[in-house]
Design brief:
The complex is a heterodimer of chains A (89) and B (191).
Chain A: E1 9-12, E2 31-42, H1 44-48, E3 56-65, H2 66-70, E4 76-82, E5 86-88
Antiparallel strand pairs in A: 1-2, 1-5, 2-3, 3-4
Chain B: H1 8-22, H2 28-41, H3 44-56, H4 58-66, H5 68-74, E1 83-88, E2 93-98, H6 107-110, H7 120-128, H8 130-136, E3 146-151, E4 156-161, H9 173-179, H10 182-186
Helix pairs in contact in B: 3-4, 3-9, 4-5, 7-8
Classes of the chains: A mainly beta (89), B alpha/beta (191).
């Protein structure tokens, strides 16, 4: 378990899984910053595939800058992402 | 006007219900009971009461922002089926909630979600150009205000704590709560 603390910079995996995931396509491959650890919850990817028991992982609120995501914009977007969607940047 | 039952999504939902019932996973009665319980109490009045209390009680505000579920329980809404995270608007920051994957949102505190919240346009544009979306909702934001978009992709549900309007010092908690709208708790209105 990586246990990312707030402020840690992570990169979302650039995977394109052939099953259900809650890793939105628009953040894949992008670098963001951990805002908070939310809780530990079953990984939706495992639940949707009927994998029992599913992996239970920490889910993080991760902040991205619009400029990084879209090439323009001065806002930020915070997305909740399970640990296995992330690598340390 | 199209009846809700005629919509393709309603037919698809009904087929899914029939499959779940046929598989013995639930029943019509169980679904009806659940929806009745949910919608009997789900209302933006609930979130508005919490927001107004946070405006008048600094300790409650701290609790609301640090442990939304504990704050909800203090206001009489215990046993939420999600982790509640409340984000506060200030003079420098405006928060707005979206769910790009579907339409997640704290139903018990905000009431049934509006149709536009589930639309592809709102879901795709809010993360891309929130300032333009908010302008269409009639929310004027000075250039210096930082917009923070929260995409509800997990088991957490987000609610915005609007900034207390100026000139409301004389109002009591009930009058303050009456100012707060569902859109204010989503972030598509100032209050």
């Amino acid at each position: 378990m990586a246990g990312y603390s707030p402020g840690t910079r992570i990169r979302v995996r650039a995977d394109d899984p052939d099953h259900h995931t809650r890793m939105p396509r628009y953040v894949r491959g992008h670098v963001g910053e951990i805002v908070a650890a939310l809780d530990r919850w079953p990984l939706p990817d495992d639940c949707a595939r009927g994998i029992a028991p599913p992996r239970v992982q920490t889910c993080y609120a991760v902040r991205f800058s619009a400029a990084d995501l879209w090439g323009s914009g001065d806002h930020t977007v915070t997305v909740d992402l399970w640990e296995s969607y992330l690598d340390r940047a | 006007m199209t009846e809700h039952d005629d919509l393709p999504a309603a037919a698809r939902t009904r087929r899914l219900e029939e499959r779940l019932i046929a598989a013995g996973l639930t029943s019509d009665d169980e679904i009806d009971d659940f929806l009745t319980r949910l919608y009997a109490s789900a209302s933006p009045v609930n979130g508005a009461r919490m927001a107004a209390r946070a405006w008048t009680d600094p300790r409650y505000r701290d609790l609301l922002l640090s442990d939304g579920n504990a704050a909800a329980a203090q206001a009489g809404f215990d046993g939420l089926s999600y982790q509640l995270r409340v984000v506060a608007n200030t003079g420098q920051t405006h928060n707005v909630i979206v769910c790009t994957l579907c339409s997640c949102y704290p139903v018990s505190l905000l009431g049934p979600s509006p149709g536009w919240y589930k639309s592809f346009a709102y879901r795709s544009r809010t993360v891309r150009e929130p300032r333009a979306v908010l302008a269409e909702f009639g929310v004027p934001l000075p250039d210096g205000v930082q917009i923070t978009v929260w995409d509800s992709t997990s088991e957490a549900r987000y609610m915005v704590l609007p900034a207390r309007p100026a000139g409301t010092e004389a109002l009591d908690a009930g009058q303050l709560a009456a100012l707060v709208t569902r859109n204010g708790l989503i972030g598509t209105a100032l209050v």
